[in-house]
């Protein structure tokens, strides 16, 4: 069974998705208020239109303005963001990223976390040989 591949997001799209997943719904001005170095309202609207065309967002009228909401699941958005992070900072190596996360926490893994990670590592090794 083929896995669903989450869409690749630009930095700005990822910022917008994070805002909308946290807020659930937002207007252009509410989104702009939370964007770092926010572009003009028309630029944000254009980017939102592109994201709607890519089926990342939906929108509906709420009084005199549009309200935007995510159509991608939080899981898809987080996978896309992680993929981008791994590409950018870990030379596209999930193993290096996982090692950095484990090193960052400084705490021992619980038995359940260890079992889960061991199973994922085993599955990753088995799938890696089939590519």
General shape: elongated
Order of helices and strands: HHHEEHHH
**What is the percentage of strand-forming residues?**
5-15%
Separation of the first and last Cα atoms: 15 Å
The count of helical stretches stands at 6
Summing up helix and strand content along with how strands pair, one would put the structural category as mainly alpha
Q: What Rg is obtained from the alpha carbons, in whole angstroms?
A: 18 Å
The averaged pLDDT comes out at: 86
Largest sheet: 2 strands, antiparallel
The low-confidence parts are 1-5
Proportion of helical residues: 55-70%
By DSSP, the count of extended strands is: 2
Strand order of the largest sheet: 1-2
Question: Can you summarize this structure?
Answer:
The protein is mostly helical and 131 residues long. It is built from six helices and two strands; from the N terminus they run H-H-H-E-E-H-H-H.
What does this protein structure show overall?
- This protein has a two-stranded antiparallel sheet.
- Residues 1-5 have low confidence and may be disordered.
- The chain is built from 6 helices and 2 strands; from the N terminus they run αααββααα.
- By secondary structure, the chain is mainly α.
List its traits.
about 130 residues, mainly alpha, two-stranded antiparallel ribbon, elongated, disordered N terminus
Question: Topology of this structure?
Answer:
Elements: H1 11-23, H2 28-34, H3 41-53, E1 57-62, E2 65-70, H4 74-89, H5 94-105, H6 111-128
Antiparallel strand pairs: 1-2
Helix pairs in contact: 1-4
